Amino acid sequence: MLVNQQCFCGSGKRFLACCQPFIAQSAQPNTAEQLMRSRFSAYAIGNSQYIYDTYANSSQAAQSVSEIEQWGKACIWLALEIHETHGNTSDNDTSAEQFVEFSAYYISDNTLCELRENSRFILEPARVEDHNQLLQWRYIDGEISQHCELSTVKRKDLCPCNYYPTAWSAKKGKKFKQCCGQ
């Protein structure tokens, strides 16, 4: 099914050539933005373990795979919009930090929502005990600047994915009940 699927992150690339290698852990994101995009795609396909694994070591204790899974399943993830990326981009520095400001659009309980966040990412070893391991980007935390309900979605309405150029849905022009609401 996902062989020809457009990537959920809105990059315009195919999923298998974009976020899937990161989620499958056969490749590592080179930038915080790539990690952000792959985390959104993981939410879209329901891979809670990847989302948990890409939290910074210091943030993992406050998370659980089951809570991530509950949040992810409660939503239909429509589109990701990257607004800005900035910060230190050194590849070999554990003090490297990048910020990715984004909006994630999703539907929960037939309500279209926008979550706008400025997320902070750091470079760290994948395991604290292995200091010789290559550094990898990890999500540490984020500041939510907006989390709002945009509209109520009715089954016969045009699917909201039609309004987002980065939406991954291939069923453009369909009603919600025939598209993302299935």
Could you write a compact summary of the structure shown?
The protein contains five helices and four strands. With 182 residues, the protein is an alpha+beta fold. It is globular, with a radius of gyration of 17 Å.
Record keyword descriptors for this entry.
four-stranded antiparallel β-sheet; 182 residues; alpha+beta; globular; 31% strand
What does it look like?
The chain is an alpha+beta fold. Helix content is about 20%, strand content about 30%. It is built from 5 helices and 4 strands. The mean pLDDT is about 85.
Task: Find the count of extended strands (DSSP E, 2+ residues).
Answer: 4
Instruction: Find the structural class using helix and strand composition.
Output: alpha+beta
Low-confidence spans: pLDDT under 50, at least 5 residues? none
Distance between the termini: 16 Å
Instruction: Using the CA coordinates, give the radius of gyration.
Output: 17 Å
What is the H-and-E element order? Answer: HHHHHEEEE
Note the total helix count.
5
Main β-sheet, in a few words? 4 strands, antiparallel
Order of strands across the widest beta sheet? 1-2-3-4
Mean residue pLDDT: 85
Q: What is the approximate shape?
A: globular
Relative strand content: 25-35%
Helical residue percent band = 10-25%
